[in-house]
Amino acid sequence: MNPRPSIDELFSLGGSLARELPGFEPRPGQLEMARAVEAGFESGSHVLVEAGTGVGKSFAYLVPALRSGKRVVISTSTITLQQQLFRKDIPMVARALGLEPRVVLLKGRANYLCREKWERARGDLALVERPEISKLRRWANETITGDRSDVPFRLDSLLWERFDADGDDCIGEACAHFDDCFYYRRRRDAEAADIIVVNHAIFFIDAIAGGLLPAYDYAILDEAHTCEDIAMNVLTASLSRRSIDRTFRRLRRYFTLPTSLTAQVDERYRELGETLAGTGNELLRLDERPEIAGDLDRLRDALYHLENWIADNGASALTRPPRGDLEREMRISGAVKSLAAQAEVVDRLLAVDDDSIRWAQSSVHGSELHCTPFDAAPILRDLLFARTPCLLTSATLALGGDFSYVRARLGIDRAEELVADSPFDYREQARLFVAPPDLEPDDPDFVVRAYALLEEALAYSRGRAFVLCTSFRRANEFGERLRASGLHPVEVQRPRSGLDRDGLLRWFTETPGAVLVGTRTFWEGIDMPGERLSCVVIDRIPFAQPDHPVLEARVQALRERGEDAFARLQIPAATMLLKQGFGRLIRSRSDRGAVLVLDGRLQGKGYGKRMIAALPPATRIAHLDELQEFFQT
Ligand code: SF4
C-alpha cells in the first residue's frame, strides 16, 4: 500500500491536485496555509489565516479537512461561496484525493418548502387565483430538494412565506410529512455527513443555542471577517412593527384571533413608536429614556393577554380542524411560544444589567428596538472556542500581520496564526491615489472637490468603476453629479427602490464602461475579475457611526478602563473594512486597476498612514494624471 502523500506532495506540480485540477499551479501561500491547517486538524488547535486574494484558500483548507477523516462543518457568509464549495470545490478536491465524502449543504429552514403548508393552501381560493401558483405547483410536484433557490422564477417573499418550513409553523413529528419533509430530510442527511456546509447564521445559532447541527470535530469559518457581526445579530433580541406583523400573519393562518386583543398589541406598539419618535432622536439608548419603560410594560401586558387567550381558547379558535390531538397541541404550543418569544424580547429590553445595550432606532419607516450584548467575545469563548477547534480565514483578518484585534473581538485566547501572502503583484497591477490631506469628508466643499477627483479618475479608467460610499446620502450626491455629467452609464443603489444588489451587479456586468455607486453591501463579498472593474473609489474612511448606541457604550466602557477606544476599536474596524473595499479591485493575476480614496485623512493623520500600511502594497501615485499612462499600457 502506498504511504499517504504529504501535504507538500499533494500541492506540488506533479501532485494529485495538479493532475485533477485544470490550470493548477503551486502557490507558496496556498501550501503554507494547507500545512498550517493540517497541523491545526492534527493538534486540535485554532488556526487563523489571513489569505490574500488569489491564495486559493478553499483548496488549502479542503485538502486537510477531507483527508482528516473528521466530521467538519464549513461555514461561510455568502451563498455564492457555499454553492461554489458544495458544487465545485469539494467534489474536485475529493476526486483529486480519491475520496468519496458525504457532503451536505444545509440552509436555514425558511429556504425549504413545507409540504404540510403547501397541501393546506391548495384549497385557498385567494391563493389558487394567483398566476404564480400554477408555476409553483409544477415546481412543487417535481422538486427533489424543496429548496427555494431551485424555483426557476422570481418569487414574492410574502408568497413564499406561506409555504416555507419556518419553525414557528412547524408541527414536527405530528406532521404527516415529517418523514419526507425537505428540511428534516436535509437535517438527517447532515447527521450522516462527513462535511456539512452552512452559512454563518446557522453556524452561530447552533453554537449559541444548539439543536441545528450534529456533533462535529472541527469548524472552518471562511469569510471570517463577518463572524463578529453575524454572531452579534444572532445574539441581539429585536422587536419591530415587522416582527409583530409577521407573528400575527403566521398566527392568523391557523387561528381566528380576537380583534380586541390584537388591536391592543397594535395600539401599544403604536404608542411606543410615538414616544420614541417624540424624543427627536433617530438612535437612542433606552436606559437614557426611562419614560419608554412604561410603554414597554404595557406592550408586554398586551402580548401576555393574547398569549393567555390562545393558551385557554386556542383549540376552539383553530381555523381548520387538526388531524389529531397531537397536531392541536403542537399548534397551540407553537402559537403560545411565538408570542412568549416577543414578550421575552420586551423583558430583555426592560431588564437592567451591564452585559447588554438596549437601544432603539427610529425613521420614517418606523421604530426598531434591540438588546445587544455588550461584547460577543465571552459568550463565543464559552460556547464555541473553548469547545471546538476552528479555522478562521479571510482575506481580511489581521492588521499588519497582527491578529489580536480579531481574537479579542471573538474570544479566541490562543491560535496558530499565519498571513499567507497574495500571489498578485500589487505594485505592478494596482495604483493607489489618496486625496490631499486638507480634503476631509465633513468639509462644506467636500462633495465638490471630491467629485472633481472622481470625475478625473473615471475619465482615465473609462468608467468601469465601483464608487463605494459610507452612506446613501453621499452615494446619491455623487450619483446625481455623475448622471448629470452624462460621461458614463451610472446606476446608484437606493435604500428601498430601484434594482437590488444582484440586479445592480448584473447591470454592471452587462454595461460597458459602467459606474456603480453603492453603499456597504458592495464593499465586500463581490468577485468581479477582469477589465469591467478597473477602478474602486472610496468616499471616506469607513469608521462606524460614532453616535450609534452600541459603539458609544463600548467606547465609554473602554474609556472608563483608561483605554484608547479609538485605537482599540474604531481604527481596527475601519481598517478591516477599508481592506475589504480595496479587495474588490484585483481578483486575478491579469487584473489591473486603481483605488482612489477621497478622504484626505488617510494621508493627513497618523492613523491614516497605519491604515495605508495595512492595505495591499499598490504603487502610490501623487497625481491622478499618472493613471492616463497606467490605463493605456
Ligand atoms: S415537518 Fe414541519 S416543516 Fe416539515 S412539512 Fe411538516 S410542518 Fe412542514
TrEMBL record:
Example GO biological process: nucleobase-containing compound metabolic process
Cofactor: [4Fe-4S] cluster
Coiled-coil regions, chain positions: none
Domain named Helicase ATP-binding: residues: 16-273, 38-257
InterPro entries hit by this protein: ATP-dep_Helicase_C, DEAD/DEAH_box_helicase_dom, DinG/Rad3-like, Helic_SF1/SF2_ATP-bd_DinG/Rad3, Helicase_ATP-bd, P-loop_NTPase, RAD3-like_helicase_DEAD
Signal peptide start and end residues: none
GO MF term set: 5'-3' DNA helicase activity; ATP binding; DNA binding; hydrolase activity, acting on acid anhydrides, in phosphorus-containing anhydrides; iron-sulfur cluster binding; metal ion binding
Transmembrane segments: none
Record EC number: 5.6.2.3
Keywords: ATP-binding, DNA-binding, Helicase, Hydrolase, Iron, Iron-sulfur, Isomerase, Metal-binding, Nucleotide-binding
Catalytic activity from the UniProt record: ATP + H2O = ADP + phosphate + H(+)
Record-linked PANTHER family: DNA REPAIR DEAD HELICASE RAD3/XP-D SUBFAMILY MEMBER, REGULATOR OF TELOMERE ELONGATION HELICASE 1
Protein name: DNA 5'-3' helicase
Taxon lineage: unclassified sequences, metagenomes, ecological metagenomes
